[in-house]
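To the wet lab folks,

You asked to see what we're planning to order before we commit. Fair enough. Below is the target structure as tokens, and below that is the sequence we designed to fit it. If anything looks off to you, flag it before the synthesis order goes out.
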């Protein structure tokens, strides 16, 4: 089954072709430089940019692969969560292609797609425990198949990526700060007493990062020289960073990573039938998290599944992959499906997979 996947939930426009769970090719246009000028994603600008690029990216993907719309068996598109204006561009484009080619459509949950992206690289074995750590979400799940996600916990305030981006912003580093924090922390030594591991006494599998953010703000107020250095770092170059700056980044990242892994560990220990754990989403690209998760999995004797870097951040291969898996199970949507913005739950309303105008 050949699936064309379309992703436009935030600031990346992307399309990919996946055949039977294997990636053929993908294209992506990022808007990071544009939004960096404003210190964060500007929704109105994001939708305009998706609209500007989506058609060109489609032409480029088809030219590179030598495929035509008629070759695709199904079209998958991100339904949500995300920015509504951005989601609508992808959904309208997908619906247009479905009409033009009389193709079936499947609307995909972006969070589920992140979690199963590693299926493009390695074989998934159900049931598994999955931790999604992205810019907008920190969710823990028990996953029993491509269509069966049971949420065990979530963040009550900031997401892990948001906690990284906000700390970077406090330091005067440019958006999105998570990647820069990673690079600075890699050269530093963590002081594990410096920042708290928040919300671990609660016996739920929920997270909370606001206490960590407040502790970091208090520390930075007492160390204005570090903030002054952070503000100049972009222009001086990351490799000029002082030992003290690298160390505070390492200490902060260690607090984020420890907190994530403690609750993940509790979730894994809770089930006796789990052989794999997945860590996915943009923050899964973080080198400190990857290293700590390797040790954590080895200690517990469980297989760790983390997608490679490009499959951690937003991409269309993961949308096409999950679209392919859902279509193989017979799920599909009609043209009336609605895009779902962040903060609203995605309805479980898939119908039967069928060509747009019915069988001919
Ligand atoms: O999954 P993603 O690409 O988009 C969302 O769906 O949110 O995640 C973006 C988030 C941002 O907060 C970004 O700073 C963070 O992932 N991120 C990282 C790293 N790469 C991306 N955080 C820490 N270390 C990284 N290497
Ligand atoms: Zn994402």
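Sequence we intend to order:
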């Amino acid at each position: 089954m050949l699936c064309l996947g379309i992703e436009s939930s935030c600031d990346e426009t992307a399309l990919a072709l996946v055949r039977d769970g294997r990636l053929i090719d993908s294209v992506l246009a990022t808007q990071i430089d544009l939004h960096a000028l404003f210190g964060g994603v500007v929704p109105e600008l994001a939708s305009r940019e998706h609209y500007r690029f989506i058609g060109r990216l489609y032409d480029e993907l088809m030219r590179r692969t030598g495929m035509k719309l008629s070759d695709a068996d199904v079209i998958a598109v991100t339904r949500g969560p995300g920015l509504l204006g951005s989601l609508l561009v992808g959904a309208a484009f997908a619906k247009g292609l479905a009409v033009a080619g009389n193709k079936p459509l499947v609307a995909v949950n972006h969070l589920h797609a992140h979690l199963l992206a590693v299926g493009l690289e390695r074989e998934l074995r159900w049931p598994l425990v999955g931790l999604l750590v992205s810019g907008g979400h920190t969710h823990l799940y028990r996953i029993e198949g491509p269509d069966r996600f049971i949420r065990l916990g979530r963040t009550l305030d900031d997401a892990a990526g948001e906690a990284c981006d906000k700390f970077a912003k406090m330091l005067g580093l440019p958006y999105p700060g998570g990647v820069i924090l990673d690079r600075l922390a890699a050269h530093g030594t963590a002081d594990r007493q410096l920042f708290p591991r928040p919300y671990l006494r609660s016996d739920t599998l929920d997270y909370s990062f606001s206490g960590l953010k407040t502790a970091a703000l208090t520390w930075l107020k007492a160390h204005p020289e570090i903030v002054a250095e952070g503000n100049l770092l972009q222009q001086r170059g990351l490799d000029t960073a002082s030992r003290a700056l690298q160390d505070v980044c390492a200490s902060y990242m260690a607090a984020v990573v420890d907190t994530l892994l403690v609750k993940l560990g509790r979730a894994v220990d809770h089930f006796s039938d789990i052989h794999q754990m997945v860590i996915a989403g943009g923050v899964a690209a973080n080198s400190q998290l990857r290293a700590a998760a390797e040790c954590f999995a080895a200690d517990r004797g469980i297989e760790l599944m983390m997608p490679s870097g490009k499959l951690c951040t937003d991409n269309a291969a993961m949308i096409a992959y999950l679209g392919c898996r859902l279509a193989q199970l017979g799920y599909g949507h009609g043209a009336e499906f609605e895009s779902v913005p962040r903060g609203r739950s995605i309805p479980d309303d898939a119908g039967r997979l069928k060509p747009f105008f019915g069988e001919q």
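Structural context that might help your review: The radius of gyration is 21 Å. The chain has a mean pLDDT of 96.

Thanks,
Computational group
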